[in-house]
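Hi team,

Filling in the usual template for the complex we talked about on Friday. All components are listed, including any nucleic acid strands or ligand strings, so the model treats them as one assembly.

SUBMITTER: L.P.
PURPOSE: interface mapping
COMPONENTS: two
RESIDUES: 594
SEQUENCES:
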Amino acid sequence: MNTVYLDNASATRMDERVLEAIKPYLFNVYAVATSEFGYSLGIEAKEALDTARTTIAGSLHGSPEEFIFTSGSTESSNLALKGVAKAKKKGHIIVSKIEDFPVLNSAKTLEKQGFAVTYLDVDEYGLIDSNTLEQAITKDTILVSIQHGNQEIGTFQDIEGIAKVCKEHDILFHTDATHTFTRADLDVAKIPVDLVTVSAHTIHGPKGVGGLYIRKGTSLSKAMDGGFQEFNVRAGLENIPGAVGFAKAVELVTPQENERLKTMRDSLIDRLLSEVPDTTLNGHRKKRIPQNANVTFHYVEGESITLHLDMRGIAVSTGSACFSRSLEASHVIMGIGGDHERAHGSVRFTFGRFNTPDEVDRVVDAVSDVVESLRKISPLGKE
Amino acid sequence: MKTPYTEKVIEHFKNPRNVGKIENPDGKSTEGSPACGDMVSVYIKVDDETKKIADIKFESYGCASNIATGSIITELAKGKTIEEAKTISWKQASEALGGLPPVKAHCSVLAVEGLRAAIRDYEERHGLIKEREPTTINVLRKRLKHVMNPLTGLDVVRTELIKDIELKDGTVRITVDLSEDHQFASAIKEDIKEKIEPLWDVKKVTVEFLG
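RESULT (copied from the run log):
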C-alpha cells in the first residue's frame, strides 16, 4: 500500500525534474562562483547562481540584487529580525502570536537582549486586525514581522493592509512566506513589504536552501563573518546546486497546480466536517492557503490519531502536546483562543504535488474509522 | 512501520483491554494532566469480603502510551487485593509493556495514579481512610516524586531537578534547576502545580526556575 503523505508543510518530496536540474552542478560545474575575471568553470557557476537568483526574485516581482540565498527559512527569518535589530541597535518589534518558531524565538532572543517586543493577538481565525497593529505601533517601533500564511492552520493574513500600515509609519515590514511562496501571489512591486522569507523545502525543491528578499535600501547587519558572498549580507560558499534546484522548483509550480491543491483541500475539509461528528475547522474557511486543512476531532487525542493513521499508511501531523518535542500544545491553536482540548485533537493535513483526489477518499474513510474507535474508549463526549 | 513504542505497547494501543465504564462502581477516579492534556478514568468493583478487585475498567482521552498503560494497569490490578493493587508502580506497568519512551512517562503515569485514586475513592466511601494529613515538606517531596522529568523518564526529585521547597502558611514555593526557556520548563511547571495544588491545606503554588 502506498503511503498517503499529507505532511507537505513540514517537508516535500523533491521533484525528479529538480534533481535533473541540479545534477550538472554537482558533477560538471562544481566550482565556486568566481567573479567574471575568474576561470571558465567558476564563471559558469556564477552565471547559474545569477540565473537562479533572477528566477526567484522575479517570481516575487523583485530584482535579483534584492534576493539572497540562505540555508532555509529558519536562517532567513533569523537574519531578517536580528539583522534589522542589530543595524538599528535598539527599538520595538511587533510580531504575531502565531508566527512560526524562527520568527517567534528570534523575537524572544531580541527581547532578552533589550529590545521591546509586542506579541500581537489574532482573532479566532488567526487574523491580525490592521487597527490592532496600528495601536501597537510606538515611536520606537523598528520592525513588524507578520507571516503571509500560517504553518499550522493555513490562515492568510491581509498582507497588503499590514504592509500599508507599516509604510505609513515608516516601519520595516518582514513577512514569513515559507508556506505561501509560489502557492499564492506576493508582488513586492505592489505591496510595500521590505523583507520576505522563502524556502525550497515546501515546494518540492531541495532541503537546506531558502532565501530572503531584501528591498533595496534596507540595512541589515551580517549574521556570520566570512567572505564577500551574497552582496556581503550572507557569508559562506554559495550552494549552487541548491540555488539551481530552488529556481527549478519555483518554475514548476503552476496556477493550475495550486487550483488542484485547493480542490483536494476543500473536498477533504467538507467531507471531514460533514462525515465525522464533533469536529471544528481550525483557521479560516476562505482565507486559507491552498494546501492546508486543519481539523480538531473533539474527545480524542492527536498522537493517537496519527499513530493509527500511520499504521494505515497515512502521514499527518497534530498540534497535540503529546506529539511535540517540548510537550507543549500548539501555540497557534492556543493563540486563536483554543484551549488544550482543541489543540489536543487537532490534525493538520497538508497537500503537495504528488497527492491525488482518490487519496482524499482513503483519508476520510480512515480518519472516520480511527476517530470513531478512539471515541469508544474516551471518557468524554458521551451522554 | 517505524515507531518509538514496543510491540507490546502497540498491541495494547490497538486492542486495549477492559475499556469502558462500570455502572455503580465501588470506586472511580478521573485523573487529568493539563501539562499534557491527557485524561484517564478508572472504575473498580471491589469484593467487600476479600477486598479483591473483582472488575476494573478504564477510559482514556490520551495518547498511545496513556491508552496502553491504562490497558495494562487493568490487567495487572484485576484479581488483586486493594492493598496489593495500590503498590503497582509506573515502573511495573512500564516493564509489563516492555518499556516506554522516557518523554512519555508523563502521560502514562496518569493511568497508574488513576488506579490509586480509584482505590482511595473506594476507601473514602467505605470509611477506610484515616485523618487528613497536614502538608509538610516531606509530603510535598513525596508528591513531587510523581512529577516526571521528561528528559529521563525518572521523577524530578530523583533526578535532582528540585533545588528548593518552601512551605509557609499554605503557600508553596518550588525552585527548579532548569532555565526558564528550557524545552520542558513549562510542561514541568504545570505538572508540579497539578500535583501540589489539590492538597487540602495548600492555598498557593509558585514554581520558579533558576536562570
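MY TAKE: Chain A has a mean pLDDT of 95. The interface with chain B takes residues 108, 299-304, 307, 310-311, 320-323, 325-329, 340-341, 343-344, 376-380 of chain A (CB under 8 Å).

Thanks, L.
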